[in-house]
């Protein structure tokens, strides 16, 4: 009886959800690799020009950075298509795969350190994401982009959007000029907040294109073009501040923190806009929350072990003081110059 009920629950994934799942997995592979390629390009550009982390744009003349950008675009296109077929709660958590890819490639190619507990953190992120995917709700049936616009203009989501925009403006104009080089959460915060809005617009645009290709033209509605404009603005903002984060901080740390914040805010936005939890029972909701806790635990491990190395000769961690900024340490103890973070005697 228990076996039969398990099959009844999990055998019913629709063809659209399967398409979304495959596209999301492909997206994570490309995006995970793009982090490393872009980081290599940023390092090469920074060696001969002004680094992106301090406001430079010399990376635009670096071919390797463009290879990484194209790789990321391919991944984002696959991700874009995935949202047209499956709910955000199913698609977004699969970004955990990009964490594993970027962390492993960062260790191999960029020679960045990843502690054993960091590997455990990656595993926890995957376990948590899998838990969420297995209990994700079915996609909402939508017949027109105007339905999505109606959902986006309901008071609850409008309030969320206003709060996000205000928070982003405060981060950009008040906190980033002072703390951007030493506090990773400010760059990632801007990317993640804008990302939650861009995903909702991407999903709306994807639905519009899917309906158009199936014979119901959605391009005649102004709502489709409004969502397109929002996507462009949000994605450009994300890319700009993600470049700054990658150029300033360790890739193996940027990737998981960005993933967790982006995923959490995107699912929150989806819950508010598409009312995903209205189609789930309490057990499914609690299980999804447990998945989030697991992901957050993995990210905590990655963040706390970012400057640790395996082995008995590991140096003690130095606590920052007021005078440390002149010696290369920021207010969180994050080295301003990564190569000085662990000096051998």
Automatic annotation (TrEMBL):
<feature type="transmembrane region" description="Helical">
    <location>
        <begin position="184"/>
        <end position="208"/>
    </location>
</feature>
<feature type="transmembrane region" description="Helical">
    <location>
        <begin position="20"/>
        <end position="37"/>
    </location>
</feature>
<feature type="transmembrane region" description="Helical">
    <location>
        <begin position="117"/>
        <end position="137"/>
    </location>
</feature>
<keyword id="KW-0472">Membrane</keyword>
<keyword id="KW-0812">Transmembrane</keyword>
<dbReference type="InterPro" id="IPR037185">
    <property type="entry name" value="EmrE-like"/>
</dbReference>
<protein>
    <recommendedName>
        <fullName>Probable magnesium transporter</fullName>
    </recommendedName>
</protein>
<comment type="subunit">
    <text>Homodimer.</text>
</comment>
<feature type="transmembrane region" description="Helical">
    <location>
        <begin position="157"/>
        <end position="177"/>
    </location>
</feature>
<dbReference type="GO" id="GO:0015095">
    <property type="term" value="F:magnesium ion transmembrane transporter activity"/>
</dbReference>
<dbReference type="GO" id="GO:0005769">
    <property type="term" value="C:early endosome"/>
</dbReference>
<comment type="similarity">
    <text>Belongs to the NIPA (TC 2.A.7) family.</text>
</comment>
<feature type="transmembrane region" description="Helical">
    <location>
        <begin position="220"/>
        <end position="241"/>
    </location>
</feature>
<keyword id="KW-0406">Ion transport</keyword>
<keyword id="KW-0967">Endosome</keyword>
<comment type="function">
    <text>Acts as a Mg(2+) transporter. Can also transport other divalent cations such as Fe(2+), Sr(2+), Ba(2+), Mn(2+) and Co(2+) but to a much less extent than Mg(2+).</text>
</comment>
<keyword id="KW-1003">Cell membrane</keyword>
<feature type="transmembrane region" description="Helical">
    <location>
        <begin position="80"/>
        <end position="105"/>
    </location>
</feature>
<feature type="transmembrane region" description="Helical">
    <location>
        <begin position="253"/>
        <end position="273"/>
    </location>
</feature>
<keyword id="KW-0460">Magnesium</keyword>
<keyword id="KW-0813">Transport</keyword>
<dbReference type="GO" id="GO:0005886">
    <property type="term" value="C:plasma membrane"/>
</dbReference>
<keyword id="KW-1133">Transmembrane helix</keyword>
<dbReference type="Pfam" id="PF05653">
    <property type="entry name" value="Mg_trans_NIPA"/>
</dbReference>
<dbReference type="InterPro" id="IPR008521">
    <property type="entry name" value="Mg_trans_NIPA"/>
</dbReference>
């Amino acid at each position: 009886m228990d076996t039969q009920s398990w099959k009844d629950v999990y055998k019913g994934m629709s063809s659209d959800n399967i398409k979304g799942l495959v596209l999301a997995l492909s997206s994570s592979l490309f995006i995970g690799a793009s982090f490393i390629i872009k980081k290599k390009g940023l390092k090469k550009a920074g060696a001969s020009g002004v680094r992106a982390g301090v406001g430079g744009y010399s990376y635009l003349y670096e071919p390797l950075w463009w290879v990484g950008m194209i790789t990321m675009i391919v991944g984002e296109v696959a991700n874009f298509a995935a949202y047209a077929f499956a709910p955000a709660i199913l698609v977004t958590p699969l970004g955990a795969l990009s964490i594993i890819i970027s962390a492993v490639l960062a260790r191999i190619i960029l020679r960045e350190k990843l502690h054993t507990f960091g590997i455990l953190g990656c595993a926890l992120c995957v376990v948590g994401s899998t838990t969420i995917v297995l209990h994700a709700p079915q996609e909402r049936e939508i017949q027109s982009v105007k339905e999505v616009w109606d959902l986006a203009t309901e008071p609850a989501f409008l309030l969320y959007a206003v709060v996000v925009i205000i928070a982003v403006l405060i981060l950009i104009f008040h906190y980033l000029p002072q703390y951007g080089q030493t506090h990773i959460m400010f760059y990632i915060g801007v990317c993640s907040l804008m990302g939650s809005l861009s995903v909702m617009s991407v999903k709306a645009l994807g639905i519009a294109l899917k309906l158009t290709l199936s014979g119901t033209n959605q391009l005649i509605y102004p709502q489709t073009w409004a969502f397109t404009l929002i996507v462009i603005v949000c994605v450009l903002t994300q890319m700009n501040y993600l470049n700054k984060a990658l150029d300033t901080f360790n890739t193996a740390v940027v990737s998981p923190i960005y993933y967790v914040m982006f995923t959490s805010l995107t699912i929150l936005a989806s819950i508010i806009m598409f009312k995903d939890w209205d189609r789930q029972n309490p057990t499914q909701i609690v299980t999804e929350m447990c998945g989030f806790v697991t992901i957050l635990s993995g990210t905590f491990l990655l963040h706390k072990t970012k400057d640790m190395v395996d082995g008995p000769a590991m140096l003690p961690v130095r606590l920052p003081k007021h005078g440390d900024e002149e010696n290369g340490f920021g207010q969180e103890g994050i080295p301003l110059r990564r190569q000085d973070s662990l000096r051998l005697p």
